[in-house]
Design brief:
Chitobiase, domain 2, about 600 residues, alpha/beta, binds alpha-D-glucopyranuronic acid, TIM Barrel
C-alpha cells in the first residue's frame, strides 16, 4: 500500500543509509531514462533547487535532506503531469511533527487505523518493510519528526529511556535515510523510578538525573529530536506538585538536552479536569492562557510550547487559541489532530485542510515556529483506516512545509497522485473532500458549541453526555436558551484576544454564525443575520447535513475507486450515513423537546 505513492512500484530496499542514496534510488526507479544529478550543498539544509539542464537532464541542489525533498518534489510533480521549470523551495517550519499516541501494548490512544506500527507486547517491535514505506510517505510529504509514543506515558513506556534504548536507537536508524528524526514522550516523574524521592524540577538530584539520562540517550541516538512532555494535565505528573511553574519544569529538561541540540516540546493542554458543573466561574477555554501567558519570555531557547489549535480540545469548530497570539517572546508550535477523535473516527469523511486554513486567517505564519499533528496512522493495510483519510496526512505535510498552500490544489494533487482519475472525476472527488468538513459540522453539534458527543469514545451524538461531568465542557441548554457568554460581560474569555480579533466576535449580531454559540448565550428565538431564528437554523443545518451526506454517498459510489479502497469506502460511507441520521434526529429532538418550538418547514422531528 503506497497511498499517494502508488506509482513508485518498487519498495525501498534495506541498506540505503543516507537521504541522498535514497533519492538516487527513487529517481532511478521513477525515471530510468532521465539523467538526474544531485548536488549537495550543506548550507541549504532541508531546502532544494531543481534546475532543468540543456539536453534533458536535471540537477537537484540541496542540503543533505534537501536533495531527498527535491527528488520527491520532482517525482510527484512529474506524476501529476507537471514538467520541470526551475523551482526552489525550503520549509517554513523546522519541526514538522507527527505525534503518535501509541502505547507499548500496541494499542493507540484515539487510534482509528489498527494497532501500533512500532510497539507490540510491551516492547518496540516493527516490520522493517512497513517502516521503510512509512518513512517514504513521511519524507515525500515533507515531514521530518516522529514522536513515537503516547503523551500519556504509562509504564512500560518509560523503558524507552532505559532498557529499550537500544531498540529505540535501531528504530531511529531505520528512519534516518528518510530525514525523519524521532522524538520521545517522557514521564515528568521518571527520576522517581531510580529511587529519587521527588521529581521537583529545582531539586539538584532530579536535575542531575535528567542530565545523565540525556547524556545516555543522545550517546545512542545523536540526532534524537527531543522530548515531548504532557505535564500537570489530565492526571499526568508535573511541576505543580512541587509548587513550581511550567517554565521551571520545561527549562530543567531543556538544560539537560541542550548540549546535544535537543528540543523540549512542552504541551499547553493544562486545565481543570475535575471541574464541578455547578461552578460557573471557571471557563475551561480560558485555562491555557491563564497557565502560560504570564510566563512569556521565561522559557529557554530550546523549549517550544505546543498549543492545541483551539482553546478546548480539537472540536469541529473552535476559534484559534489566544495563546498562539499572546506569547511573542516564546517559541510556539500549533498542535493539530489528524486522528479523527471528534471528527468521525476515520469512518466519516472529514478533510481538514479547509479548517487549518481558517486558523491561518487569524494566525500570522510567523507567530509559530513549528507545526505538530496527532497521528492518524496505524497498522491497517492502508495506514489510515479510511483510504480517503490519507488526504489529511499528505496535505498536513504540504501545509507544514508551506502554510501558504492552497487547499484546493493540495487536495486535487493528493487525488491525482492517489487515484489518477479522469479530470471530471478528480474534480468531483476534490470537491467532495473539500466539502466534507462542513457537512460533518452541520449534522453534529450546532454553531460552534461542540461536545455533544458520546463521552469517552467521542463518536456519535449525546447532547448531555458531558453536561454534568467534570470536564468543563458545558452547553447549558435550557428551555429558553443555549450557550455560554464568553465575552467580557460573561466569562471574559474574549479579553484574551487582541482587540482586532475580539471585536469580530463580541456582538452576537455581527459575530460569524459558525462561532455564535461558542461565544454567546442566546435564546432560541434570537434572529440571525439571514432572518432565521436560532432554533430554525439548528434544525435546518441538521437536516441539510443529513441530506448532503446522502448526496455525498451517492456521488462517492459513482467514482471508480480501485479495490480494496472501493469496498472500504462503501462500507464506511454506510456507517457515516447511519451516524449522520443519528446526529440529525437526536440533536433536533433534543432542542425541540427543550424549546417546544416546531420546525417551520414541518419536517419530522421525533418526540
Ligand atoms: C484529549 C484526548 C485524550 C488525550 C488528550 C491530550 O483529551 O481525549 O485522549 O490524552 O486530549 O491531548 O493529551
Amino acid at each position: 500500500m503506497n497511498l499517494w505513492l502508488t506509482r513508485l512500484k518498487e519498495p525501498v530496499p534495506a541498506g540505503l543509509e543516507t537521504p541522498a542514496e535514497l533519492a538516487r534510488f527513487e529517481l532511478s526507479r521513477a525515471f530510468p531514462d532521465v539523467q538526474v544529478e544531485l548536488a549537495e550543498q550543506s548550507a541549504m539544509g532541508e531546502g532544494y533547487r531543481i534546475d532543468p539542464l540543456p539536453g534533458g537532464s536535471i540537477r537537484i541542489t540541496g542540503g543533505s535532506t534537501g536533495v531527498l525533498y527535491g527528488a520527491y518534489r520532482l517525482i510527484l510533480d512529474r506524476f501529476c503531469g507537471e514538467t520541470a521549470a526551475a523551482v526552489e523551495s525550503a520549509p517554513k517550519y523546522a519541526l514538522r511533527m507527527i505525534d503518535c499516541w501509541d502505547n507499548p501494548d500496541g494499542t493507540i490512544e484515539r487510534g482509528y487505523a489498527g494497532r501500533s506500527l512500532f510497539f507490540r507486547d510491551g516492547k518496540l517491535s516493527w516490520d522493517p518493510l512497513r517502516i521503510r514505506e512509512l518513512g517514504r510517505l513521511l519524507a515525500s510529504a515533507g515531514l521530518n519528526v516522529l514522536c513515537i509514543n503516547n503523551v500519556n506515558v504509562h509504564f512500560p513506556a518509560q523503558l524507552l529511556l532505559e532498557d529499550d534504548l537500544p531498540a529505540l536507537s535501531a528504530l531511529a536508524e531505520a528512519f534516518r535515510p528518510f530525514g525523519v528524526r524521532l522524538m520521545v514522550s517522557v514521564d515528568f516523574s521518571q527520576p522517581m523510578r531510580s529511587g529519587i524521592p521527588t521529581a521537583d524540577p529545582l531539586d539538584p538530584a532530579v536535575r542531575e538525573w535528567w542530565k545523565q539520562t540525556a547524556g545516555r540517550v543522545w550517546a545512542e541516538i545523536p540526532d534524537l529530536a527531543g522530548f515531548l512532555v504532557k505535564a500537570d494535565s489530565e492526571g499526568r505528573p508535573g511541576p505543580f506538585t512541587y509548587g513550581r511553574n511550567h517554565a521551571d519544569g520545561a527549562n530543567m529538561l531543556a538544560e539537560a538536552v541542550a548540549p546535544y541540540g535537543g528540543t523540549v516540546v512542552w504541551r499547553c493542554f493544562v486545565y481543570n479536569c475535575r471541574q464541578d458543573w455547578r461552578d460557573t466561574k471557571t471557563d475551561r477555554p480560558k485555562a491555557a492562557w491563564e497557565n502560560y501567558a504570564f510566563l512569556d519570555g521565561e522559557f529557554a531557547a530550546n523549549v517550544i510550547l505546543q498549543v492545541k489549535h483551539g482553546p478546548f480540545d480539537f472540536q469541529v469548530r473552535e476559534p484559534l487559541s489566544p495563546l498562539l497570539l499572546g506569547m511573542k517572546k516564546t517559541k510556539l508550535a500549533m498542535e493539530l489532530q489528524l486522528a479523527q477523535e471528534y471528527t468521525g473516527h476515520q469512518i466519516d469523511l472529514y478533510t481538514m485542510i479547509p479548517m487549518w486554513k481558517e486558523l491561518y486567517e487569524e494566525l500570522p505564519a510567523d507567530s509559530i515556529m513549528s507545526l505538530a499533528a496527532v497521528s492518524n496512522l496505524g497498522d491497517d493495510a492502508n495506514y489510515t483506516g479510511h483510504p480517503l483519510a490519507a488526504v489529511n496526512l499528505y496535505t498536513y505535510g504540504l501545509l507544514a512545509w508551506d502554510p501558504g498552500t492552497d487547499p484546493e490544489e493540495a487536495v486535487a494533487r493528493w487525488c491525482r497522485l492517489t487515484y489518477g482519475f479522469a479530470p471530471a472525476q478528480e474534480k468531483a472527488l476534490t470537491s467532495l473532500l473539500l466539502s466534507s468538513r462542513r457537512i460533518y459540522e452541520k449534522y453534529t453539534a450546532p454553531l460552534g458549541i461542540g461536545w455533544m458527543v458520546n463521552p469517552h469514545d467521542h463518536y456519535g451524538p449525546n447532547p448531555s453526555g458531558y453536561e454534568y461531568d467534570l470536564w468543563g465542557t458545558y452547553h447549558k441548554a435550557d428551555r429558553n436558551a443555549v450557550g455560554i457568554d464568553r465575552t467580557e460581560a460573561g466569562t471574559g474569555y474574549l479579553a484574551q484576544y487582541p482587540e482586532e480579533i475580539a471585536k469580530k466576535y463580541r456582538d452576537p449580531n455581527t459575530c460569524p454564525d459558525l462561532y455564535l454559540l461558542f461565544y454567546h448565550r442566546l435564546s432560541y428565538t434570537f434572529r440571525m443575520r439571514d432572518g432565521r431564528t436560532l432554533i430554525q437554523r439548528i434544525y435546518d443545518d441538521h437536516f441539510e447535513g443529513l441530506e448532503e451526506t446522502r448526496a455525498m454517498a451517492g456521488a462517492l459510489t459513482g467514482l471508480p475507486f480501485p479495490e480494496p479502497d472501493a469496498g472500504v469506502i462503501r462500507e464506511r460511507m454506510e456507517k457515516q450515513l447511519y451516524n449522520a441520521r443519528e446526529w440529525c434526529d437526536i440533536i433536533n429532538t433534543f432542542f425541540h423537546r427543550l424549546s417546544g418550538i416546531p420546525d417551520e418547514r414541518g419536517r419530522t422531528i421525533y418526540d
